[in-house]
Design the sequence.
């Protein structure tokens, strides 16, 4: 699926980007028009006017329809210099995006997920989601499967030399948990 978004090269006028000999209060009032526009970087007030007096860092932008509408609503003067032609193949972009996790894991060779010196798996961002932990000692497969079906996930499997089955440390996110408690056994 191919789309052609409307993009425009825009220049915000000098009167909108400069503050001349304004006081700090006048500068802040003029700068309020630009607050919340994520494509604009605001400048700090220079009371000595040693540098080029301006409210925003740059006046040249490539913007879409919604951004132009936002400038017009805020009564900011701008001039459309040219229309930018862009042809985007969305299906190709989505296919590339879906393939990135697989490509990263294949190209990294496991270096970022496995510590070869200590033979230990290094956890990823999903570890931050667990707010409840449980230790299951000498647990059978059926009992472990019932815990997995209840929303628990295996954080670590700990084989013990004196028992037949490993111990498991399980974790899950519990939205109702508000206070800190000890691990369940």
Sequence:
């Amino acid at each position: 699926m191919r789309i052609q978004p409307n993009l425009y090269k825009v220049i915000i006028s000098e009167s909108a980007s400069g503050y001349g000999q304004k006081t700090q209060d006048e500068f802040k009032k003029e700068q309020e028009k630009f607050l919340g526009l994520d494509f604009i970087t605001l400048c700090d007030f220079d009371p000595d006017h040693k540098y080029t007096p301006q409210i925003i860092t740059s006046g040249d932008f490539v913007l879409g329809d919604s951004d132009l509408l936002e400038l017009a609503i805020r009564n900011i003067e701008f001039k459309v210099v040219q229309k930018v032609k862009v042809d985007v193949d969305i299906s190709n972009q989505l296919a590339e995006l879906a393939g990135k996790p697989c490509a990263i894991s294949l190209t990294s060779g496991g270096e970022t997920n496995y510590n070869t010196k200590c033979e230990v798996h290094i956890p990823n961002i999903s570890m931050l989601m667990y707010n409840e932990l449980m230790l299951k000692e000498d647990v059978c497969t059926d009992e472990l499967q019932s815990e997995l079906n209840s929303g628990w996930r295996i954080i670590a499997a700990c084989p013990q030399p004196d028992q037949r089955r490993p111990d498991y440390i399980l974790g899950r996110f519990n939205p109702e948990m508000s206070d800190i408690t000890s691990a369940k056994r």
About this structure: The mean pLDDT is 76. The chain has five helices and ten strands. Residues 90-108 form the longest helix (19 residues). The first strand starts at residue 2 and ends at 3.
